Amino acid sequence: MTRIDIKSLPDSELTALLKDWNVPAFRAKQIRNWLDNGVSSFAEMNNLPLSLRKQLEEHCRIPSVKILRRLVSAIDETTKYLFELEDGHTVESVLMKYKHGWSQCLSTQVGCRMGCSFCATGIDGLARDLLPSEMIAQIEAAEADRGIRVSSIVLMGMGEPLDNYANVLRFLEMLETEGGVHIGMRHISLSTCGLVNRIYDLAERNLQITLSISLHAPNNELRRRLMPVARKWTVEELLAACKAYTDKTGRRISYEYAMIDGVNDTDACAHELVRRLKGTLCHVNLIPANSVAGKDQKRSSKTRLKAFVDILTAGGLNATVRRTLGSDINASCGQLRRQQEHGVEQIVSE
Ligand code: SAH
Ligand code: SF4
After folding, report:
1. Rg, C-alpha atoms of the chain
2. Phi and psi, residue 6, nearest 5°
3. Contact 142, 178 (CB under 8 A)
4. In this prediction, what percent of the chain has a pLDDT beyond 90?
5. Rounded to 5, what percent of the chain is helix, strand, coil?
6. 165 contact partners, CB below 8 Å, separation of at least 6
7. Predicted confidence band at 327 (pLDDT cuts at 50, 70, 90)?
8. Cβ atoms of residues 96 and 73 within 8 Å
């Protein structure tokens, strides 16, 4: 029998489960408090009757994550975690310090099946989806480890969040409504390679999250070379879905564009991008591409980045080059897992 992941249950389902067991509803609140406090076993729930604790142990489980490795940037306190899940899989997460508080980049899957050519996460394909509880546990583990509160979330770690749609949606709902980690939708960004059908679904939900689209190319020919998902949906279809999202939610779209030397960073690409995006409610985020072991890609030079961003700005687009945080610890996701032995390890837990 598979045990129920109790930490992924919203209050209504937790109460319903206990009702099935003829347990009074106030116990749900007590259990929720324990879960929100990050306990990892039912034995710790010492205000519950022993019989209920035993019943919970028998039928339920509390997924948690363990810090396997932790790298702290000596430059800006950016902290990168390699978390181990209960089945031994590992995922990465990065904590970044901004003026307005701490922001955490979370993983939504172990690996990814989207196979983008420039990305480290996709190399070994998808192992499995993360559960809502495992997304929350990443936040709890980082908060407990550093003694801080995370005030914003970016779903930009390992995995494609819209390929794990139901779990990600449930996770977002839990952040909004439950008592533990509480983060408002306006402080959440979800990054996607562009699963068009899911973007429409998300628009219907009218959550106030920021949608980040990994665009990386201004036309179908180039995008198809970099991202297999572009063979399923064209740039035109993707941009139409983005427009629907903006129309429905009023939220500005953020387009991510990894600048890869000699691949997608020409003046012509910049002009084409302007033609595509001009007049839409958006912001373009240029990311100097990270090199990935086994791939011969290089990031664009500083002068190329500047020339590119200047064309976008002159064309009327709102565009910036992303600040590189944690450059001494190689803080972008998907690489620590693959390069464990090469990291600049400073602190190892346990
Ligand atoms: N799967 C989602 C979210 C995770 S990837 C997505 O693709 O959007 C997070 C971001 O990192 C995406 O914008 C992705 O395109 C980008 N990225 C992946 N590999 C990169 C690399 N080597 N250099 C720079 N950005 C990269
Ligand atoms: Fe998956 Fe995003 Fe990497 Fe593409 S860039 S392989 S969608 S994690």
Report:
1. 21
2. -70, -30
3. no
4. 82
5. 40, 20, 40
6. 198, 201
7. low
8. no
Return the SS3 of 211.
strand
Which of 92, 134, 140, 160 is labelled catalytic? 92
What's the topology of domain 4-61?
Answer: DNA polymerase; domain 1 (1.10.150)
Pocket mutation for ligand 1, best pick of 91, 108, 153, 214 (most atoms within 8 Å of C-beta)? 214
Active site residue 92: yes
Going from N- to C-terminal start, the domains of the chain cover 4-61, 66-342
Instruction: Select the CATH number that applies to the domain covering 66-342 from these four: 3.40.50.2300, 3.40.50.1820, 3.20.20.70, 2.30.30.60.
Output: 3.20.20.70
Instruction: Give the pLDDT of residue 343.
Output: 38
Of the listed ligands, the closest to the CA of 295 is 1
- What is the C-alpha separation between 198 and 179, in angstroms, rounded? 28
Is-contact 235 221, C-beta < 8 A? no
| Catalytic residue of the set 193, 333, 341, 350 | 333
Ligand 1 atom nearest 299 alpha carbon: 23
* pLDDT for residue 350 is more than 50: no
Q: CB of 214 closer than 6 A to ligand 1?
A: yes
C-alpha 58 to ligand 1 mean position (Å)? 40
Q: Whose CA is nearest to atom 4 of ligand 1?
A: 156
Q: Does 4-61 match 66-342 in CATH topology?
A: no
Return d(Cα 138, Cα 95) in angstroms, integer. Answer: 10
Which ligand 2 atom sits closest to the C-alpha of 119?
3
CA distance 326 to 72: 8
Cβ neighbour number for residue 149 with a 10 Å cutoff? 12
**Within 6 Å (CB) of ligand 2, which residues are found?**
112, 114-116, 119, 121-122, 159-160, 193, 214
